[in-house]
Amino acid sequence: MKFRLKYVAEDVDRHGNVRLYYRRNGPKVRLRGPTGSPEFLADYRAAAAGSKEVKTDKAGRVVPKSFRWLCVQYFQSAMFQELDPRTQKVRRSILERFCEHKGDGDKPFAQLLPRHIRVRRDEMADRPEAANGMVKAVRQLYRYALRYDHHDDNPAEKVEYLKGNPDGFHSWTLAEIEKYEEAHPIGTPARLALALALYTGQRRADLVVLGKQHVRDGWLTFTQHKGRNRKPVRMEIPVIPALQRVIDATPTGDLTFLVTAFNRPFTSNGFGNRFRKWCDEAGLQNCSVHGLRKAAAARLAEQGCTEQEIMSITGHRTSKEVTRYTRAASQKTRAESALRRLSREQTPDESVPLLAAVVPGGTKSQPK
């Protein structure tokens, strides 16, 4: 006979195993299974009575001063709560996986050394970005520990990041943009998505919220999604004629330019998945929506824009990332400029040999 007790929750781990918990107000308590077994009922009664003697395995117990205990303190802190909800989700997931690895969550956090983190990092060497994300999450955890006087060292600060792809996401070429435009003509949502990304240089989290209400006197005015709770970046970008023509020719939503087939705004992940399909339909498997942000910065660099001018469009607070985005374009622009000067018809003064134009005193000789 099936029955269901109050406050019992089920959770399926990544291996497909069903875990049982008692959860009521306070932290959840692991219950032995299966449901209805003598062990389950004994654990349930003890948990319901608030007994501290509940028999649980390591997955349901937080050992004081353990790595898992430090994570719990961190998740409850203002330092963690100030993060963007998506960042919270990602970081919590990374740290929980760290806890589950070989029982590391129950080990004293004060005994974690740089060499231990390096071993974990090297195990993920085939996924350098994921490995670096793990190192970064542990760094932030121990920064919390330092700030709140739980510890006096940050072992993760001494662990180097792995070298990933130095260029990051693939930056679209002009030929790839033209190929996409051939597959998705003006008037389609796919073409509108391309135009918004290319002519604003924004991240997909910003593209999905832009709408008519953000246009004021021909300018897009909005606050970027990334860092909006800690270091908000307010943007004002002109709507150039090429973008306005695409917007005018495309059906849009009431609150956002980009909408799903059900006329609802996209989520950031949903838009990324949809754009992936549009790229595949155009035969551009190596292209992504973030690559258009890089392409926008590169095109500005090719037009001779300074890093500060490019940053005013992309919203970057430092030039480090912009420099990486525009490295190839800047090299091309400098090379073109240098060769143009070289091939320019030289003036009589420019044709004077350098050595002949300098006297021993170090000044230019005067004509006699």
From TrEMBL:
- SUPFAM superfamilies linked: DNA breaking-rejoining enzymes (SSF56349)
KW DNA-binding (keyword) present = yes
* Alphabetic keyword roster: DNA integration, DNA recombination, DNA-binding
Q: Which PROSITE patterns match?
A: TYR_RECOMBINASE
Please name one Pfam family that this protein belongs to: Phage_integrase
One GO biological process from the UniProt record? Answer: DNA recombination
A GO term, aspect molecular function: DNA binding
Superkingdom of the source species:
Bacteria
Question: Which intervals carry biased composition (Basic and acidic residues)?
Answer: 333-347
- Per UniProt, residues of the Tyr recombinase domain are 167-338
Positions of the UniProt region annotated as Disordered: 327-351
Residues spanning the membrane:
none
The cross-references to PANTHER family, in alphabetical order and at most eight, read: PHAGE INTEGRASE-RELATED, TYROSINE RECOMBINASE XERD
What is the protein name stated in its UniProt record? Site-specific recombinase XerD
